[in-house]
Amino acid sequence: MISTSLAGFGLSDELIRDSLNGFISNYLSFGDGFILSSTERFSPGISINLGVLLIAVFGIGGSALFADDISGKVIEIYLSRLQKKEYVIGKIGAIIVYINIFVMISLLAMGIFFIQALGMNHLEYLGFYGGIVLFSLLSSIILGLFILSLSISVEKRSYANLIFFLVFIFGSIIGLTIAMNDYENELLILISPSNFLILLSYICLGDLNLGFSGMRGISPLVLNDGVGLEAWHVLLQAFIFILVFSLYLAFKIKKMTTEKL
Predict the structure, then answer these.
(1) Cα 115 vs. chain centroid, distance in angstroms?
(2) Which pTM was predicted?
(3) Exposed/middle/buried for 27, CB within 10 Å: 0-12, 13-18, 19+?
(4) Beta carbons of 200 and 35 less than 8 angstroms apart
(5) Rounded Cα gap, residues 26 and 43, in angstroms
(6) CB of 233 within 8 A of CB of 186?
(7) Model pLDDT for residues 82-91, shown as the tens digit of each residue
């Protein structure tokens, strides 16, 4: 149901949803305007693009979780009081909660604010809120496991943070350049960490009819037509990231002994 003020501006429910989806999906992105919420409706979305800033914040907080314990020689103290699984679960839980303070809580608060300001019925947007929660959890798990893997490997928080930041920035730049120069292979879009998070968010929000803006104009990006890039490709990549980082983290932790530390 559209309020009178919105109807006066000619804003439809589809346009509002495109705007909200675009805002949420570009929250962690490196740049704006590459992956669009639609090729048919150019929504007047609001985009903050805090990707660079937030990735740095996540790296600063997460890189210390293992690295500081190792460099400070305090892991043996923790392991003398806790089981190894309790110690690890605490670290993983801490980074996920930390990331979601900036992602889930912020996006839910802003989503509720925008819908309230637009005079819309919140009950009609429960799926939208659920999509925010799902995206926040998936992205925080992937980013959290990655930074923890770096933290336990590099063992210096400054180096782990720098690598985490550079992988996101340069990976996004290089991945976007490759994708923009080869429209025939839509799977190349997934090379960019920024684009991957944008696509993951759109899928969680249920928006599968997108657009990709590049040097050759705007191309349709339909994630459920059985051709090219599909929603399951993005979800599969998310699962692979979680599996690989989890196995690597488990391998490194299994090698940790009080004698070595």
Answers:
(1) 22
(2) 0.86
(3) buried
(4) no
(5) 13
(6) no
(7) 677 777 788 8
Whether 236 contacts 54, CB under 8 Å: no
CB neighbourhood size of 129 (10 A): 16
- Residue-wise pLDDT for 102-114, tens only, equals 999 999 998 998 8
pLDDT tens, position by position, 238-256? 999 999 999 998 888 877 6
Instruction: Using alpha carbons, select from 242, 246, 256 the residue that is nearest to residue 82.
Output: 256
Structural element, H or E, at residue 204: helix 193-204
**Cα distance between residue 78 and residue 88, in whole Å:** 11
Query: On the CB side of 243, how many CA atoms lie within 13 Å of its CA?
Result: 6
Nearest to 190 by CA among 228, 156, 155, 247: 228
Q: Alpha-carbon distance 199 to 34, whole Å?
A: 11
The amino acid at 85? K
Q: Please, what is the Cα angle at 226 between 45 and 212, to 5 degrees?
A: 30
Q: How far apart are CA 212 and CA 233, in angstroms?
A: 16
Distance CA 146, CA 252 (A): 13
Q: At 217, list the tokens.
A: 């104009």
211, containing H or E segment:
strand 209-214
Cα–Cα distance, 165 to 155 (Å, whole number): 16
Identify whether the C-beta of residue 182 lies closer than 8 Å to the C-beta of residue 188.
yes
**Residue bearing tokens 């799977």:** 187
